[in-house]
Design goal:
- The complex is a heterodimer of chains A (395) and B (437).
- Chain A has 395 residues and is of the alpha/beta class.
- Helix content of chain A is 37%, strand content 18%.
- In chain A, the strands form two sheets. In chain A, strands 1, 2, 4, 5, 6, 8, 9, 10, 11, 12 and 13 form an eleven-stranded mixed beta sheet that branches. Chain A has a two-stranded parallel sheet with strand order 3-7.
- In chain A, strand 1 and strand 2 form a beta hairpin.
- In chain A, helix 3 crosses helix 8 and helix 12 crosses helix 13.
- The longest helix of chain A has 17 residues.
- The mean pLDDT of chain A is 96.
- Chain B has one domain: Peroxisomal Thiolase, Chain A, domain 1 (3-Layer(aba) Sandwich).
- Chain B is built from twelve helices and 16 strands.
- In chain B, helix 10 links the parallel strand 11 and strand 12.
- Chain B starts with a strand and ends with a strand.
- Classes of the chains: A alpha/beta (395), B alpha/beta (437).
């Protein structure tokens, strides 16, 4: 078990406000356009919404689509893209032992039902009985299944046939980091040959926005790059889906799959979030990885959320790395659980094309290394959890 | 301490601490339990083997207009209004403290390994929504945009709805290492927490893991959701007789609360510090189902594969299992399929292996079930006594199993398997045994 195996990324599925798939993302970055965001639909809050998606392409049965809420559809769609990219889609003999770890939130609500209850309860003689009656009569039975966190994974099993194993991690950004960490470690240790890992978020909803606004975490009124939102700033909730196929090099070779990149290491930790904690933890995570990084040919893709004080603390910590930095959240928004997998996907794209996206905001900086061989991906949670991964180009 | 996928401290090389596959053996050195039967394993075990039910009429909220008005609530801990996040945290804490105290591992506030936690899915609760609506609009109707307007000043900054919150607080309290993992595989969650811990120790990432499943989420909406899926028993009178796994008149599960905690430790580490070994986690198996969101595949393949994977991971054959701790939810579907799976895996022996359902007494503790029932399985191994399946008065002729009906039984139990089968097709089985001679 102590023998560590090489872990390849053999499939990537990504949908963000920049578009669908690796080529669309690359093309967007290549043209240097400003970040697309929506400050009207949920004003005063700013969100990054997805372009129209033809879900039929990955979820052919309408019945399946009806059983899912949007966050699940986005995830199942992105998972399908990754499986297709890895040439696993439609191959039951391989999918039978394909493992899965999904980082999820859940809890999309029936907003009209909630709104009617909020209105009616004021006049109700017995509020408790009123609530029971309305819930019994008005909730759609299938909505529960669209709310359960583990049902994104459940739907991926149903729609795409991934049935090796299925685990769902909860807990905001850390869920995404640890999903990738555990998936990588299992493949490296021989506990899995091939694992689908990722997540999805759907920010264009009042109920999800409410959860984050309770913590005063949302960006309002005026858009700015993640680094420059100030103490009153916050996250611009991003709708996105991101999945990776992690695979042992031997398993990939045996089936003739080509690697897009190597996932060398993933590390995570937590702290109490006292002043200085983020810098110390990120510094320690960096120390576990730094020896493997060639400073002249590497860069950082940061998952900075835009919420303070975490964003400034990360920015401060990153200066110690001495590498060029780009914050992806400025472009794709913040997808919570899915952000770390999304940034690994973006790292893969960037490595394949050798080009970082254009710097935007005061925390981005440094020239594009030539050639670009390694990307350090960071994930500092809005309120807890730190993570770091090293993605490498395979020559 | 930082957790890294590239880490790897080799466990003791002494082969008596390794399993047949050359991996570190993983022991259980501490057990903690909270259910509707009580707080702590002593009280729980006494009542569980006494065939006493913890299911009762719901008293914490009005049940008018509900079809199901009973649950296995943890009333010993619940007080005033406790949101599910708070109650789940409280019972996880109690179970964790009991397990750590028995294990004697680490020191106060410093557990030498990570936390793997199965919490319930959390959401903002109705009482909070009602209060925010009042804040935003007084007596006028309020919608979500109104709630958002007042949210920042509502005073629930780290809201009890954040999925990571229970793990974060427990990690802080117990001083576990690294990033706490919170996971959900529906009704298999507690078993998955144990499995993640087992795998981490086998990888050599750590020597110990605190695995906890906790669920304190009996609320009106949670009850309604299960009710609308026709998953719950509606035989409300008398509450104690509603959960009747494997009976012909079974009509659904009883929602319940509880927490189970295990201290997992490499056997080498446990022995080196002279800890008492309560049992060995020999193996875990999982297999997903791609048939349906709430129903298992009619050919039983995923359930069968799950049990077989667990036995294979443990390196044992079906003939070496002395007891099956059933998932046994008391739903028509589950018990039928579980019987089908057991019959296929254990063949001719199937009708003779004792199999009992803890849920007949404590109800279905949902995300905690896998951990609570693993704890009870370990107590079964320790006490050499099998808890019964109570309320078994109308046998289902289609289910030919020795369900240990109605009364506990002394038996020689060296090895047991605990089953967890979840909504969403997520199945996990855990194989446990007494410590090696």
């Amino acid at each position: 078990m102590s023998q560590r195996r090489e872990v390849w990324i053999t499939g990537v599925g990504l949908i963000t406000c920049l578009g669908e798939g690796l080529d669309a993302t690359r093309d967007f970055f290549a043209c240097g356009a400003p970040p697309p965001y929506d400050d009207k639909s949920f004003a005063p809050y700013i969100v990054h919404t997805l372009p129209p998606i033809n879900f039929d392409k990955q979820i052919p049965k309408k019945g399946d689509q009806r059983q899912m809420e949007m966050w699940q559809r986005i995830g199942v769609y992105a998972a399908g893209l990754a499986l297709g990219d890895a040439a696993l889609a439609g191959k039951p003999d391989l999918l039978d032992h394909t493992d899965m770890i999904v980082a999820a939130i859940g809890g999309e609500r029936d907003i009209p039902v909630d709104t009617a209850i909020l209105a009616g309860v004021r006049a109700a003689e017995k509020p408790g009985a009123f609530l029971n009656e309305r819930l019994m009569n008005d909730l759609r039975p299938t909505l529960f299944l669209a709310q359960l966190p583990n049902l994104m994974a459940g739907n991926i099993s149903l729609v795409h046939g991934v049935v090796g194993s299925s685990r769902t991690f909860l807990g905001e950004e850390s869920a995404g980091v640890d999903a990738v960490r555990v998936a990588q470690a299992r493949v490296a240790a021989g506990q899995s040959e091939v694992t689908l890992v990722g997540g999805a978020s759907h920010g264009a909803r009042w109920d999800h926005l409410l959860d984050f606004e309770l913590g005063g975490a949302l960006l309002k009124e005026k858009f700015a790059p993640v680094w420059d939102r100030g103490p009153e700033g916050g996250i611009a909730y991003g709708s996105l889906g991101a999945f990776l196929v992690l695979e042992s090099a031997d398993h990939a070779r045996a089936r003739g799959a080509r690697p897009r990149a190597r996932l060398n290491a993933v590390a995570s930790d937590r702290n109490k979030r006292q002043p200085g904690d983020i810098e110390m933890t990120l510094g320690r995570l960096w120390q576990t990885t730094a020896a493997q990084v060639d400073g002249g040919h590497a860069a950082v893709i940061s998952g900075a959320t835009g919420l303070e004080p975490a964003t400034s603390a990360e920015r401060h910590a990153l200066t110690q790395f001495g590498l060029p930095v780009r914050g992806s959240g400025t472009y794709i928004g913040h997808g919570i659980e899915a952000q770390f997998p999304a940034n690994l996907a973006i790292a893969t794209i960037v490595l394949e094309h050798g080009k970082l996206f254009a710097p935007l905001g005061s925390g981005d900086g440094g020239k594009n290394p030539e050639p670009l061989d390694q990307i350090v991906v960071t994930g500092v949670g809005a309120w807890r959890g730190e993570g770091l991964a090293l993605v490498e180009r395979i020559h | 301490m930082t957790q890294s996928s590239a880490a790897g401290t080799a466990s003791a090389k002494n082969t008596k601490y390794l399993d047949k596959a050359g991996r570190p053996l993983v022991a259980v050195t501490g057990i903690g339990v909270v259910t509707s039967l009580g707080v702590g394993k002593s009280d729980n075990w006494k009542k569980l083997t006494g065939g006493i039910s913890g299911v009762r009429r719901i008293s914490r909220f009005p049940t008018e207009a509900l079809k199901t008005t009973i649950a296995g609530t943890v009333d010993d801990v619940y007080q005033d209004y406790m949101a599910p996040a708070k109650l789940s945290e409280c019972i996880a804490l109690l179970a964790g403290e009991e397990a750590i105290a028995q294990s004697g591992i680490g020191s106060k506030g410093r557990f030498p390994g990570p936390l793997c936690l199965a919490p319930p899915p959390l959401e903002l609760e109705w009482p909070s929504r009602f209060k925010m609506a009042e804040m935003a609009a007084g007596n006028a109707p309020a919608g979500y945009p109104d709630l958002l307007r007042v949210a920042r000043n509502f005073g629930q900054k780290f809201g009890a709805f954040r999925f990571g919150i229970i793990g974060e607080r427990l990690a802080e309290h117990f001083g576990t290492e690294g990033s706490p993992i919170s996971l959900n595989t529906a009704c298999a969650s507690g078993a998955t927490a144990i499995q993640l811990g087992l795998e981490a120790i086998r990888r050599g990432e750590c020597e110990a893991v605190l695995a906890i499943g906790a669920d304190g989420s009996v609320t009106p909406e949670a009850l309604v959701r299960f009710s609308l899926l026709s998953a719950l028993s509606t035989q409300n009178e008398p509450p104690q007789q509603a959960s009747k796994p494997f009976s012909k008149n079974r009509d659904g599960f009883v929602m319940a609360e509880g927490a189970g905690a295990l201290v997992l430790e490499s056997l080498a580490h446990a022995r080196a510090r002279g800890a008492r070994v309560l049992g060995i986690i020999e193996g875990c198996g999982e297999k997903s189902d791609s048939f349906h969101r709430t129903r298992s595949s009619p050919d039983g393949k995923p359930i069968i594969a799950c049990m077989r994977n667990a036995l294979a991971d443990a390196g044992v054959g079906p003939d070496e299992v002395d007891y099956i701790n059933a998932h046994g939810t008391s739903t028509p579907e589950n018990d039928k399929m579980e019987h089908f799976g057991v019959a296929a895996v254990f063949g001719e022996r199937a009708p003779r292996i004792p199999i009992s359902s803890n849920k007949s007494m404590i109800g279905h503790t949902l995300t905690a079930a896998g951990a609570v029932e693993a704890a009870f399985t370990l107590l079964t191994l320790e006490h050499q006594r099998i808890p019964p399946t109570i309320n078994y008065n109308v046998p289902d002729p289609a289910i030919v199993l020795d369900v240990v009906p109605n009364a506990a039984r002394d038996a020689r139990v060296h090895r047991a398997i605990s089953n967890s089968f979840g909504f969403g097709g997520q199945n996990v089985c855990v194989v446990m045994a007494r410590e090696p001679a």
